[in-house]
Amino acid sequence: MGEWRTDPTFAMCRALVDGAEPSSFAGGPFDVRAVMTAIRAEVKDGFLLDEVPWERFPQGNRVREAVHLLHTEGSLRAGTGVVDGMCANDTRAAAVLAVPFLIRIAADTGHPHRADALAEVSCPARARYFGVASREELLLHRADTQDGDLYDDYGVEVTGYPAGWSVAAARAAITADTALLQPLLGDPDPSMRIDAAYTLATATDPDRSVRSAFRTRLVAEQDPIVSAALVLATAEATRAHPHAPTTAWMRERWRDRTQAPEVRLAAAIGWLCLTDEPAPDDLRAAVDHLATDERAHAMNDLPWMAVIGGSGETGLRRCVRKMLHPGRPDPDDDPWAPRH
Hints:
It is a single chain. With 340 residues, the chain is mainly α. It has two domains: 4-128 and 149-176, no CATH class; 180-324, no CATH class. 52% of the residues lie in helices and 0% in strands. The chain contains 20 helices and no strands. The chain has helices at residues 10-17, 32-38, 41-45, 60-71, 76-79, 82-88, 93-96, 99-107, 114-121, 163-176, 178-181, 190-200, 209-220, 224-240, 244-255, 261-274, 281-290, 293-298, 303-306, 315-324. Helix 16 crosses helix 17 (281-290). The radius of gyration is 20 Å and the shape is globular.
């Protein structure tokens, strides 16, 4: 954390913990939502990093340096993993400011580190999702922070900063750059296509334009794992912006035996997250038949599954257990145990 108590944001966080109303700081210099909104297009496009107030937020200068190294094709080791690591440590506010720059690096087809940049874009846009595999919470975008309630569904970061402010700012940044991200759904690299879908799933999509892009790409996609990513991304966006026809489409996908098994499994998981209906017998039978160990390991290439899995089971296996067999106990928490 470094000298956190000398950070400019510390006084605000301390005041919030002491009972100050978040609304008294909303829109101010330490509200990362307002800061993100104020970053001009020419600053993003020109990588004018000195125009961004990194220093206002915990470890901001470290994030700035990481973005600089990635952009200038400097040390890959020093430039990557910073945003992801900060989010894993529940310190997102400064990491959010990297999002528009990481998107532009990812969109640069000639940049050697574009895949590394894209893999980190969505990290600040998600919180409280590691190990979550229940119907109630998987693919869920929790309620945005209400400025009068510090302890909302996202709570606070380890610094005391409102986590919901960071998540909302990151999602706004991704939404603003969907035009740069959508072409990546057709990138030659399958991992880029998966990460593009994972990132776009966090965008605000009331008019379903992002979901239309997922559906359009799905028609042409030949890789079953990438196709599964597009289905899960569609389900995540639909959970945030309910749309009954899309829920019905999801049901058709898992019932369609001509679909790839990975697609049917993703559609079954997506459908279970979009409805309160009891799991029908044909869904249970299909999932139990299709969720082989080999397929479960292959589907761990999907970031949704990778963050769910534990030491003793893959993400797909955990989903199946939590959603369809909730009475089964958790596997032993043995870090050396093989995943099944």
